Batch of 3 targets.
Target 1
Amino acid sequence: MTTTTAAATTIPFFPPDLFEDDRDLLLDTVREVATDPAQRFILGERTARFEELLRTDLGAGDVIACGSGTTALTLILRAAGITAGDEVIVPAFGCAPLANTVLGVGATPVFADVDPHTLVIDPDAAEALITPRTKALMPAHMFSVMADMPRLRALATRHGLRLIEDSAVAQGAVLDGRPAGTWGDAGVFSFVQVKSFGGPGEGGVVVTDDPELARTVRMLRNHGQDGTHRFRHHLIGLNSRFDEILAAFQLRRHPGLARRLARRAEIAAHYTERFTPLAAHGVRPPPPGTNGRCYYVYTLLAERRDDLKRHLAAHGVDSHVYYPQPLPHQPAFAHAAAPDGHWPNAERAARQCLSLPVYPHLTDAQVERITEAVRTFPT
């Protein structure tokens, strides 16, 4: 990786110029959709083409575009018939939708501890929580690492459970030759701007090989209509429809996705190589390698996380703390957590996680500057 003189300005964690190179494309897309004689602004032919593009990319049975990654999870849970009295096993560490979507359909999230290094759900911890009320496992890929989907797939099959794959952050990741999003009965992606295939707005998709689940999700996303007979409502649905402007924009940006993912992977590999010796000093990078890796966020575990964050800021590097509380400790979800529950790895992750910039248009000089800032942290 070539090194040049680093600029004196702070390197932001969320880049304000994320779509600067796509400004003309975005303006053209808005005009194209707005002036189309069809005047179709949601769930039009562009959305259908985007769904088909992703379906072909993934080798999936169906892809259904919807309003967000969060509502994608809700649509799957509803379509799977998960409701009051049911339990869904989720990681104790992660984003709020892992719990609030389950609670939103009336079911109970059951929190399993995570692996101390990869930070994804521990299959053994999950299996220990299965009861007659358990209806689904909902693992999430976290930061740079996919969950152990082969073990979780076998676990779900063995116990007759639905496997719902929260792959919102993992588009482009592949584990054992199989893409993220295709391991479960259904998976999801999110296109919020900071994701690896983010766009200038909110959106998501459901990915599934189950035709009945797909048919139900399609109806649920559009007020329970079947897409053929307008104003005939077969189900109590939601408004979770996909925007034609976002569909057109993503269609036109898709050819550059592989290049952007490769750049993220290159940066992540450089970080991991340079940070691995720091593990003996209390700063631990994610596991090396490319199998089952995603590069949405690059996250360190630091015993003195807050000191490291201040050190980086003093060196002009912005960083970000994701999920400073485990889900069962959040006020909104604590009532659902087992009163005698103990999630030591999730609690440690919440204390130690610190994420670094890894977006694809970082320059080599900026990457080296970030790297050296971490490496000069006093131990």
Target 2
Amino acid sequence: MSLRSWLAATMGVLTLVTLAAAALLIVLTSVLDRSAATLGVAFGGIRVSEELEVGLLAHDRMVREGPVKVPRGPGGLSRFELEASLYRQMGELRRIASTEAERQRLDAVREDVDVYFSAQWDPVRAEQEAGPALDAALSGLEQVSSINVERARVARSEAERWNNMADSVGVVLCGLLLLGVLVVSVLLRRVALQPLRDISQSMRRFGAGRRRARAPEAGPTELRDMARTFNEMANSLAHQQEQQLAFLAGVAHELRNPLSALKLSTALSDRSRAQLTPERMDRTLSLVGRQVERLDRMVGDLLDATRIEAGRLELRPEVRDARELAREVVELYRSGDTGHGLRLSLPDVSVPVRADPARLEQVLHNLISNALKYSPAGSTVEVSVRREQDTAVLCVTDQGIGISEEEMRLLFAPFQRAGNARQRAPGVGLGLSVARRIVEGHGGSIDVTSQPGHGSVFCVRLAVATEAARHVEEDAGLTSPEDTLH
């Protein structure tokens, strides 16, 4: 599981708990608001009912004792004003009634009040109907008050029940939230922080020189990828270190051989100076020359590899005919005794390229030298130049030992030499690496086609300088303004 998914799931759970608490708070607020409204209406109904009872009793007193003794009712109202006020209060009580039973009860009370008021104007009816009607109205108002009291009690009970439930659920949600935070903290420490700490410690140990230190690939996907990347980097650095050590050992060995030959040649010359013939002197000087040339080539490859790694390889491109460059290199090898045949295949028309002639000759030298070293004596090495549309192709074909597919993958890597190559010829494995970087610095490419035992074909591909083709044909020595490529 990835760290992002884990954090998303954790935040989702905590968000759900928070939303549940918020929803509970909203529901509780709504219930309490509804209960408060119900209580307000119930209390209003009880108040108005009691005021109606008081008003009716005051009206009955005014009627019985006469306006002389009781000239005004509650609030200083006259009899007619009191009756109008009682009707208004009954209308208000009817308006705030919330149940059908309460409204029917109030309608009955109004009928009883109508009977009571109308009976007061007839002495006969006043004695027979006024008292029962008043008692019925007061009894109905008591029932209305009871209904409102019961409604207030129910609303209060519901509010208390929701409040208790909210308290319980709130406590549970708080517990879940605290438990979730605790679990998230523990899991975060185990799932993310501990693997991250292990990776940090492994990096610190590796930086302190313990090259075998590796990070455990545990925890979320991101941390496993980070640990895997670090381990791959550590393995790569360890492999590079092994390669460097092997390279230093190879360089020391390769330098020792020509130095031993030079030392031996010098010692023989000193001991047998009296018997030193011109023929022997020529052989000794030839041996010294070959060893010095070998040392110079090795040192040159080392310097070029160092410049390439530092990004300071300087190229001074000129527009030159690739045929002339190939001819000059081949003629140089033909002038010596290589023990091989050299065949040069060139087209009839020029193949202009924009390149550093010295560096391109260095590449051809390296390819031809390798072809001669790894080919049997008496075989033929072919150097060809051709043009394929807008590409100049310079190929070196030999009849040597060939290269397997497995060895070909590391052919252009620095300090790498195939098994057969190490047995057939000395070297430190830098020539092809330097050649490839030089060609790539020109914007070209170098590839190889080979089979073990059937020779190899190395081809350098560069862009044709089409804009300068006509000038090259007119003046092969024409060069472009010097610039430097890094």
Target 3
Amino acid sequence: MLDRQIQDYLEWMNNAGYAPWTMAQHSQILNRLLDFVVLNSIPWERTFARDTLQAFKDHVQVKYAGFVLRGFMRYLHQNGIICLPPGALPEGRGRSKLQRAQLPRLYEEYLQFYTQTRQVGHVQIYRVRGTLSALNDYLQNQGMELKDLDVLHMDAFLAERNRKYAPETRIHERSGLRGFLRYLYLERQIL
């Protein structure tokens, strides 16, 4: 049963738009979990017990193993395959706050529009939400509204936001902003 759940999870990750290297890491750890469970004859009902998972993490000694296991268990729980008590899975660092933070209505409407027109996964929505949240914070700090945006403001925002990011991340940031600005211009006639 575990091998089938791992395959389903990796397929879900692929459909959700996870990066290939992230999927490779998850695949490696989860296949090692499968080997560990088979080698130690651990029954399905004990596979996700705290002591089993701790023994597995001690066995593999991979820094990110706990992260992979939490993601896998969250997936299984959300799909009704395993039952976990409330609070059993801590949220990932930083993610939960950003995912739950409500942006102003116009931003949320854009995210809805973006999701429907682009058919993107939750990872891409997460990235765009982060960019829009940073833009919203920037505009509030500058005392500006969206209708006041111009090229100089966007350049200043991107210079501030992207100074610590790798070139690939900068490309994603600019792409997310371009889509939002296009929406404001074409769909909402705000810019």
